[in-house]
Amino acid sequence: MERIDKIEVVIADVPTIRQHVLAMATMTTQAIVLVFIHCSDGSVGVGEATTIGGLAYGDESPEGAKLAIETYFVPLLLGRDANRPAELMALLGQAIVGNRFAKCAIETALLDALGQRRGLALSELLGGRRRDVLPVAWTLASGDTGRDIEEGEAALAAARHRVFKLKIGKRDVAADCAHVAAIAKAFAGRASVRVDVNQHWTRAQAARGIAHLEAAGVELVEQPIPGSDVEGMRILCDRFDCAIMADEALTGPASAWRYAVAGAADVLSIKIAQSGGLAAAARVGTIGDAAHLALYGGTMLESAVGTAASAHLFAALGELEWGTELFGPLLLAEEIMEQPLVYGDFSLRVPDGPGLGVRVDRTRLRRFERN
Ligand code: MUC
Ligand code: MG
């Protein structure tokens, strides 16, 4: 048996290519949280617990995830059989409530090491690939309409992205809708436009805003109102033709089931960390499938580690009708991997090679590590 010998948690503040303006936070750096699991055969698996905007997005912060892993996860895991990720995740599930991002990082690192040991890509461990490339949307969120249009034009010209997600909810509804309408007009017939309100509207604001957005040609509205308002989401799904997507609402299989039963989403955004890990995220997908909901591959703006892990899962899932937004590494101004992920032809190539198929460059990472 290969034992778990050591677990390291690193937080690295990596600058973004421009300010990223979301309803709940403006990012100029991303706090990347990486977990390295060292095994007795010399293999090292890596996973990611990155979130957005400290505690502004969800209830786990980078610092909290590091503290939780070092204080509570490590004593449960040291010396255990590294070849049994599912058993170890069950152990963590019994001993530790919540902490989904931390759990995801541990599970990813264990699967990465197992894949390296067995010579299998993570997607093979997760059931096998149905696809080798994934369509990738880009988020226009510079905070300026003209700049967003320029950025979208460049992405189209480079054949990088032809689906744009606009982040709204920070300004008043009329200003946000005017911003979206201007961008939708600029790209009409060339790219599609979606919005993400990140829970910032009330029911009344959503009713008003979505009517405007539909008229502007927006095809999908992500989490317009708080995820806790299941009934409000159901009303919006019934009322509007454009697709309504659940994101923050989905904190694992139980929440997906609740949403499916209530008819409170047309589309589920599957996120590995928000779900509590890769296996839990796969179950969110299964529930969506069973309820005839459409699926989408979401991101928490992770580095190539979490992005590759997500890509392996999304390559193995059923139909992803709305594609993915696995662009996290492209938002980072600095490379921290030995080799970058490969983007092109409006897609991300799912990495080949054992495990995650990507390796962190520890020398590059060190420049951004917190002490
Ligand atoms: C979210 O809420 O979907 C995804 C893209 C982006 O810019 O932020 C994330 C989080
Ligand atoms: Mg979202």
**CATH architecture designation of the largest domain:** Alpha-Beta Barrel
Summarize the amount of helix as a percent range: 40-55%
CATH superfamily of the largest domain: Enolase-like C-terminal domain
Number of strands: 13
- Largest β-sheet summary: 7 strands, parallel
Return the CATH topology of the largest domain. Answer: TIM Barrel
Cα distance spanning the termini: 34 Å
Number of domains: 2
Average the pLDDT over all residues and give the rounded result.
98
Record the strand order, biggest sheet: 5-6-7-8-9-10-11
Order of helical and strand elements: EEEHHHHEEHEHEHEHEHEHHEHHEEH
- Computed over alpha carbons, the radius of gyration is 20 Å
- Indicate the overall shape: globular
Question: Which structural category do the helix and sheet elements fall into?
Answer: alpha/beta
Explained architecture:
The protein is of the alpha/beta class. The chain folds into two domains: 4-119 and 361-366, Enolase-like, N-terminal domain (Enolase-like, domain 1), CATH 3.30.390; 125-349, Enolase-like C-terminal domain (TIM Barrel). The chain is 40% helix and 20% strand. Strands 5-6-7-8-9-10-11 form a seven-stranded parallel beta sheet. A three-stranded antiparallel beta sheet has the order 1-2-3. The protein has a three-stranded antiparallel beta sheet with strand order 4-13-12, with helices on one face. A hairpin with a 4-residue loop joins strand 1 and strand 2 (26-39). Helix 2 packs antiparallel against helix 3 (100-118), helix 5 (145-157) runs parallel beside helix 6 and helix 6 (173-186) packs parallel to helix 7 (203-215). The chain is globular, with a radius of gyration of 20 Å. It starts with a strand and ends in a 5-residue tail after the last helix. 51% of the residues are buried. The mean pLDDT is 98. Bound molecules: [(2S)-5-oxo-2,5-dihydrofuran-2-yl]acetic acid (MUC) and magnesium ion (MG). Magnesium ion (MG) binds at residues 196, 198, 222-223, 247.
